[in-house]
Input
Amino acid sequence: MKIDRVLPSQRRVLAAVVDLLLPPSPELEAQTRRRVAEDATRFVVVEVESMPKFLRMPYLLAIVAFQWSAMARYARPFSRLASEQRQAYLSLWSHSRVGPLRDFVKLIRSCALLAYFDHPEVRAVLERGRAAHLAAHEERLRMVAE
Output
């Protein structure tokens, strides 16, 4: 087994982190959100696996460290934490004074948000919302002009 690729256990950790980082807006149907989250996770995995080896190997180790260092605080690995604990633990890393911890989350966040807002299903929902907003604005302008 090659250890320079994202393992299934690491992919599950990345998927859980991506799920926490994706915004609640625009509101998507549950099934659509699952598809979009899966696609965003896939994008994050591809980006991690595309890193040069001298960056990829430490990043893969950081995924393992993220998963298991939760034991020190919660007596459980990250993947077995309750939702609120997962969010708190992710926030701890995201706002850490230690740069590599922040950077670990920053890479996942930036890739996940790029994939999310570039996803065709999200863009379609945003465009419908934009069109509805413009129509309402035009209606208000017509009412004022009358």
Notes: The mean pLDDT is 91. The chain is about 80% helix and 0% strand. Helices lie at 8-21, 30-50, 53-74, 83-94, 99-118, 120-145. Residues 8-119 form one domain.
